[in-house]
Write a structure and sequence with these properties.
The protein is mainly alpha-helical. It is 58% helix and 4% strand. It has 32 helices and seven strands. Zinc ion (ZN) binds at residues 492, 496, 522, 525.
């Protein structure tokens, strides 16, 4: 474009004025404004009045992200003048080119990453230090920086609109698939976070994760008031996961289970309130009575660990480290706010971008579960089964887990015979898919796109990101063949792989590949997993055990919904108190947690001011991740309910997975007729209660 050359004037340095625009661009505001006006006039003259709205929006989007290192106003004008796609044909060409190229770069980056992780992910012998280095490298880490540096990102921002969640939800219902693909294309570049900010976030995250990963309690060293040790030697439990799972396991122990559960609750409360003596954390060389908080040198030795031996044996409390860690993750997250104009807080990034459900509506969904009259009915059933009044730790009641018609040993034997090797499972994939209702042709197509690898861990699914590549099913096969647990997981992962293959290979736009968020792919994988017995030629679990499974899921959602509300409350409090001290943070967390308990749990449990909801470690190191859990339960019930109704998994699964990565509510409306919400969960629970109340307790 010829006109731009002359606009390249003296360098920015010489003319810098103190006044800069809000976007940290460092380019003088007045000069930038003049440039924008000049561009608008020139380009309207060239392409016509009809382009004005697009043009204004595009120029503003570029200006919002433009920094001094991108060039002065002359470079800016030259760039916009040359890269505005002012007619539909050029715009289509640009769109096609980007869709093709981005599929390639994403797909190849994913393949490289998979190859770099090969040794650490697969069961292929020892892991050397260099394997760890390979696995830790992410080749795609700088792609977005590169695409801003070479200005391809600006080309996208100039020609395709950035949208807010409100726009996507309101206008998105009437968008064409191409418009959705354009929205996803632009979103890729909706933030330009400087490397030092990303580094700070990474460091805060790593520090908090490190703190969490070392937070062990040595259970044999817990003493009750009579000096008894309730837990076996050597038992070391990580907060909060292992502590919670121990509470769940203790229901099976009629003798000491209750005393153990009460003791663990006390330990959890000490952690949350930070009255826990610092000396007892991850230290097998002291004994501790969590009720009185008395600490003494250990009277018994049950570990080889020497690192903490000789550590000061005092009752001094942990100095609010838990809350200092949480505050650090907040302080780091905040640094990204100015570089994320369409979602300028971590809270907005989680709800508007990751979950794409407005926070207010999300909160209402949680409250609908928490305040449901079904809670009291399920609680009464639990109380009856326990034969005692509920105690606060019963939010983790696990007794609804059903025992099936077949023993684990029987199932192991059936599976082992059928699948002596990973290869045998792979060969059987088309048959399994036909049993799930896919046509023979479709089953073969899907199977041909899935590679089966021997997993080092329990198993996982890794989708492809370009169509020429394949999805990988990583599954665990023991030396003497696959066992039932491995099979159950393999079926789950196969569900992911089938979703991944359909939502990449059968979709109209690769820019829309995938599902709206992880809760959706999990829900689809659970549908497969729920039919694993039929795939072995056995009968499905009976109505009663399906009903108790539903009650188990409902109770779990009731528990985690409160935890999610605490997580949300804490982040809002931090944004309202940016300079809080760890002690203030602790007090606020306790208050939020008590308030939510008193509102939704106290009426059921009969005790007030319980702080257990704040025990989750995710709250400290996972940046407002906890609300994903209740969301996942709700979505799983919606999808299951629809599949049950239609009676055919194969065709429904395919229809749903083809919708791709559009807004969750719109995806769900297309899939089930209703937006994302708790109604399916509540309806299934109501039905399950009736089923259980109708049939006698065994
Ligand atoms: Zn999964």
């Amino acid at each position: 474009m010829p006109y731009s050359k002359r606009l390249v004037s003296a360098g920015l340095q010489a003319e810098q004025t103190p006044k800069t625009r809000a976007g940290e661009s460092g380019v003088p505001e007045q000069r930038m404004k003049e440039s924008m006006t000049r561009l608008e006039t020139a380009l309207i003259a060239k392409y016509g009045e009809g382009e004005r709205e697009r043009l204004q929006r595009g120029i503003k989007q570029v200006a919002d992200f433009w920094r001094p290192e991108d060039g002065d106003t002359g470079v800016f004008e030259d760039f916009v003048g040359r890269n505005f796609a002012g007619d539909p044909k050029t715009r289509d060409t640009l769109f096609d080119r980007l869709e093709f190229a981005l599929e390639s770069i994403d797909g190849h980056m994913l393949e490289m990453n998979r190859d770099f992780r090969r040794q650490s992910d697969l069961d292929l012998g020892p892991i050397y230090p260099f394997d760890e280095t390979l696995a830790g490298y992410d080749p795609s880490a700088h792609v977005n920086d590169d695409l801003f540096a070479n200005k391809l990102a600006f080309t996208v921002l100039l020609n395709f609109p950035l949208t807010t969640l409100a726009e996507r939800l309101k206008d998105g219902q009437n968008w064409s698939r191409r418009q959705w693909a354009e929205a996803r294309l632009a979103e890729r570049f909706s933030k330009r976070i400087p490397a030092d900010v990303n580094l700070a976030i990474g460091e805060a995250s790593a520090q908090a994760a490190q703190y969490i990963s070392q937070y062990n309690i040595w259970m044999h060293h817990l003493l009750d008031d009579r000096g008894n040790r309730l837990f076996p030697q050597g038992l070391r439990l990580l907060a909060h996961w292992n502590l919670r799972d121990e509470i769940k396991a203790d229901y099976a122990d009629p003798k000491t289970g209750l005393a153990q559960q009460r003791m663990i609750q006390k330990v959890m409360e000490r952690i949350v309130t930070q009255t826990i003596p610092e000396a007892v954390i991850n230290n097998p060389h002291v004994d501790w009575n969590p009720a009185t908080n008395e600490v003494r040198p250990a009277a018994v030795e049950d570990s080889d660990s020497t690192t903490t031996r000789g550590r000061n044996v005092s009752g001094d409390p942990e100095p609010n480290t838990r809350y200092a860690m949480l505050l650090k993750t907040y302080q780091a997250s905040r640094k990204a706010d100015p570089y994320s104009p369409t979602a300028p807080t971590l809270i907005a990034r989680r709800f508007d971008e990751n979950r794409e459900i407005p926070e207010a509506r999300f909160q209402k969904m949680l409250e609908d579960v928490l305040g449901s009259p079904l809670v009291a009915r399920v609680a009464a059933l639990i109380q009856k089964r326990l034969g005692r009044p509920l105690e606060p730790f019963d939010i983790w009641y696990s007794g609804f887990r059903s025992r099936g018609a077949y023993s684990e040993t029987q199932l192991d034997e059936i599976v082992r015979k059928k699948y002596p090797t990973a290869e045998a499972y792979k060969t059987d994939i088309p048959n399994l898919l036909i049993k799930l209702g896919f046509s023979k042709e479709k089953a073969e197509f899907l199977a041909s796109n899935i590679v089966v690898d021997p997993a080092r861990g329990s198993g996982h699914a890794m989708g492809a990101s370009r169509r020429a590549d394949k999805a990988h099913l990583r599954t665990r096969v023991e030396k003497n063949g696959m066992n039932y647990k491995g099979f159950n997981i393999a079926v789950h992962e196969m569900g992911h792989n089938v979703e991944q293959t359909i939502s990449l290979n059968e979709i109209d736009h690769t820019l829309l590949q995938g599902v709206p968020n992880t809760a959706f792919t999990e829900a689809l994988a659970f549908v497969f997993q729920g039919h694993d017995l039929e795939l072995l030629g056995l009968t499905r679990p009976d109505a009663r055990s399906q009903a108790t499974k539903t009650l188990n899921d409902f109770w779990g959602t009731y528990e985690i919904a409160g935890v999610a509300l605490v997580d949300m409350g804490v982040w809002h409090w931090m944004y309202a108190h940016p300079d809080a001290t760890p002690a203030q943070m602790r007090d606020a967390t306790l208050q939020i947690s008590r308030d939510i308990w008193n509102r939704y749990y106290a009426p059921i449990f009969g005790s007030r001011d319980v702080v257990l909801l704040a025990i989750y470690s995710h709250m400290i190191d996972s940046f407002l991740y906890l609300p994903d859990y209740p969301l996942g339960h709700m979505i799983a019930f919606q999808i299951e309910q629809k599949m049950e109704k239609s009676g055919s998994i194969g065709s429904e699964f395919e229809r749903m997975a083809k919708a791709g990565n559009i807004a969750p509510d719109i995806w769900m409306k297309q899939a089930t007729g209703a937006p994302v919400g708790p109604e399916a969960l509540l309806a299934a629970t109501r039905q399950a209660l009736e089923d259980v109340e109708r049939t006698k307790e065994k």
